Amino acid sequence: MTGQTREQQRALDAYARVREVKVPALRADYKPRVNGLGAAVLRDGLAAALAFLAERDVGSNTAAQRLLKDLEWCLERARLPGLSSRDLKEKGLPGAVRELELDAYMLATRESLRLLVWFRRAVQATFPAEGLGDA
User: Fold this and answer.
1) pLDDT above 50 (res 109)
2) I need a labelling partner for 86 at 20 to 30 A (CA). Which of 71, 77, 78, 118 fits?
């Protein structure tokens, strides 16, 4: 046992991934993606939100791809059924989520929403605030 709660592990994972986003241009696009993904999951469902993120400007949108990889890394560490390291490598996160049974899909959705809360907090705490000197 690691002595950490699941919430603490989620927070550590999210902060670790967000801290790695260092390029200012990437940060500028990463922040709204993080802020909008939770609402997209609630509105459209996890599979649709991830598919949209994965297919959005494939190749040119590095922030969307980065967020998808960050979320995949965190969900792999959560050890959810159907989202093993092998499943994620073979199918990618959107493909693996689409193939989940209902119970596993609901669990993955809840875990993703909890992770995204920590991603939002990490972005707010880590990225410099825009317009700080304009006030």
Assistant:
1) yes
2) 118
Query: Which residue did the predictor score with more confidence, 59 or 25?
Result: 25
User: Is residue 57 pLDDT above 90, yes or no?
Assistant: no
Q: State the DSSP string of 13-81.
A: HHHHHHHT---HHHHHHHHHHHHHHHHHHHHH-HHHHHHHHHHTTTTT-HHHHHHHHHHHHHHHHTT-T
Neighbours of 88 (CB within 10 A): 18
Q: Which two tokens stand for residue 2?
A: 């690691």
Question: Binning pLDDT at 50, 70 and 90, where does residue 133 land?
Answer: very low
Q: Based on the number of CB atoms within 10 Å of its own CB, is 86 exposed (0-12), middle (13-18) or buried (19 or more)? A: exposed
pLDDT at residue 7 tops 90: yes
Q: What separation, in Å, do the N-terminal and C-terminal C-alpha atoms of the chain show?
A: 48
Please state, in angstroms and rounded to a whole number, the distance separating the CA atoms of residues 10 and 18: 12
